Amino acid sequence: GAAAAAAGHGGRERHVLLFPLPYQGHINPMLRLAGVLRARGFAVTVFHTHFNAPDAARHPEHRFVAVPDGMSGRPPPVSVGDVVKHIRALNAACEAAFRDRLAGVLAEYSRDAVACLVADAHLLRMVEVARRLAVPTLVLRTGSAACFASFLAYPLLCERGYLPSSSQLDMPVSELPPYRVRDLMHIGMDGHELMCELLACAVAAVKLSSGLILNTFDALEAHELAKLRRDLAVPVFDIGPIHRFSPAADGSLLHQDRSCLAWLDAQAAESVLYVSFGSLASMGARELVETAWGIAGSGVPFLWVVRPGLVRGCAAPGEPTRLLLPEGFEAATRRRGVVVAWAPQEEVLRHRAVGGFWTHSGWNSTTESLAEGVPMLCRPSFGDQMGNARYVEHVWKAGFEVGGELERGAVEAAIRRLMAESDGGEMRARARELKKAAAECTGKPGSSEMAIVKMVTHMLSL
Ligand code: UDX
């Protein structure tokens, strides 16, 4: 089949080149894709920036090529607006250097040994460079199908007045149910032009390419995928949840504290709440205090990731996590909870002791959680997270959103609802059904498995 095809093509190894956007939530799915392609017989070359460079030593099976980004003096982005500007700056800064590196690789491998480049949707300039060098491209978009559909509809939604005005946040977006205005990607009036540009570039990257790869699966987004396939001229490959095909692809930028796994081993089944807000989302010092006392007051065992940078204005990287927690918190929760700076999340979610996930609703976290049947308490903060939370609550019914100001009483009540009350139990049952559906999609002859076969065949035909 396709597995043999890549390795056996004309008796020569075929190469796929990858270029992830240098953020954790984008590096992880791209390295998992690398694992999938390697397993199907391709040789993989990963281009990467110096900023947030992946650890090549942990992936001896791939080749890594650094692309100078000329941005070493620049402080890492903290706000959403910063991230959007950073993405634009990275595109500009890497373009020429990527052309050089790509030309070098092409000279080395011979042009027809290279099947294609797969670039992150936010790297339009790299897609353009590859095209000029006659290298076919595919695009990996790391969010949901629904989210990408909203990118396509964005100009129309702006024309119809949904955005940038934000006075009617709860108005349904009738073109994209079940989204409300608040669920769309937006960063307010000031950042509106920038956001429009970001999304238009992602759409352009896909339209210039020969295919769109999405980390989603049929049981989750059948309707949204069908709509994308109608609206796009390029094939769409729904190969998620991708970590299921490539479980060992660890692309963590921070050290994962594995000691928490032994602690989980000693806990009762489905008793622990896992709390993590991903790699970028942050909170104010006051929100952290309310979160801490809400967790403590709930009486529920917990594993909480407090990463460096989680609390705005505090903690230089490297500062011990526990210094961020309110005084008395450790004593109040001793033996009932563990706080770490970064967790092996995939394994944590797979652990039998974990019964709920309080998440910022990043797309990777959402799919990782659903694939393990873990229901969610959603606290989205920016980007596609609001839309993801909307689907979790409204469509998949595998969790609910905790909105408004964070206050310890509300946090306590939300945790109890998820972990101990009957409607939390219903959400757990829904999550379990989705776990089963995900396993069917990734098994043989599931839709995601078939999509991988089609993607590989497509790559070999370009
Ligand atoms: C960002 C956006 O928030 C997200 O919505 C978008 O779709 C991708 O980029 P991020 O905020 O980091 O990503 O969240 P998420 O998408 O959930 O990715 C985080 C990744 O880090 C996950 O793969 C998760 O397994 C991993 N992780 C997180 C750890 O390995 N350890 C942790 O302690 C926390």
Core attributes:
binds uridine-5'-diphosphate-xylopyranose, about 450 residues, single chain, transferase, 6-stranded parallel sheet, 16 helices, UDP_glucos_trans, alpha/beta, globular
Number of separate helices:
16
Low-confidence stretches: none
Number of strands: 13
Overall morphology: globular
Q: Give the strand order, joined by hyphens, for the main sheet.
A: 3-2-1-4-5-6-7
Q: What portion of residues belong to β-strands?
A: 5-15%
Please give the largest β-sheet. Answer: 7 strands, parallel
User: Gyration radius, to the nearest Å?
Assistant: 22 Å
Q: Structural class, from helix and strand content?
A: alpha/beta
Mean pLDDT: 93
The ligands bound in this entry are: uridine-5'-diphosphate-xylopyranose
Helical proportion?
Answer: 40-55%
Q: From N to C, what is the helix and strand string?
A: HEHEEHEHEHHEHEHEHEHEHEHEHEHHH
Distance between the termini: 17 Å
GO molecular function, one term: quercetin 3-O-glucosyltransferase activity
Family: Belongs to the UDP-glycosyltransferase family.
InterPro entries: UDP_glucos_trans
Pfam family, one: UDPGT
